[in-house]
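Example 241.
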Amino acid sequence: MPPPVGVDSLVMNKKQAVNDIIEEIDNTLKFMEGLGCNGFDCSAKSLDTIEKWGSDVTIADETLESIRTDIGNCKRCTLSEKRTSIVFGAGDPKARLVFVGEGPGYEEDKSGEPFVGAAGKLLTKIIEAINLTREKVYICNIIKCRPPGNRNPMPDEIKTCFPFLKRQLLVIKPDFICALGTFAAQTLLETKQPISRLRGHFHDYMGIKVMPTYHPAYLLRNANKKRDVWEDMKIMMKEMK
Ligand code: URA
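Predicted structure in complex with uracil:
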């Protein structure tokens, strides 16, 4: 007897849901292994890792290189299907200040480097205006692969990618983060507040002072907001002294 209408798609949805759960468990176990935890063996080290879960845990001997190796030729989400490069991040691995953007655009996807297009050129000017250089700061994004057509990243893509950024930040240990734009600020600070409210003062992320400000791409379309960004940068410069 043929199955009633809709059963096939129901089965497909369930299969997808099970696959998603398996992938999630797989990612979590790999992450825990990186933290030095051998699964759920109840050893003192594993219990300690679980207890500190989500707080300021640094993976033993972790470096930016080992995180990049761990990412590999990532296929953890569907952004891998259309990307050219994984844009990991660039700059000083010991930077006091990290700039976090949204995700790679066309130029970044082609080159593998963050913020190298028009918005990137403006970011370089902002960095130089605060008497720093791109080499003295670290520049990265919430997600590492370009969303097709530069659409906003989806929640599941962020969920998959964000732990790698968190690990990068735990290795770099910056004193300051400048969150560029709504998306970076809302993701880091786990809030839905608009960037216009978030900018202009410091917030906290894992003990790091976070200054949200407008995204350089937004400034390219709204030059009158450059003044606000300059105010934010001045607050940051003063605090960095
Ligand atoms: N916009 C971003 O948010 N990040 C980049 O790397 C480039 C443009």
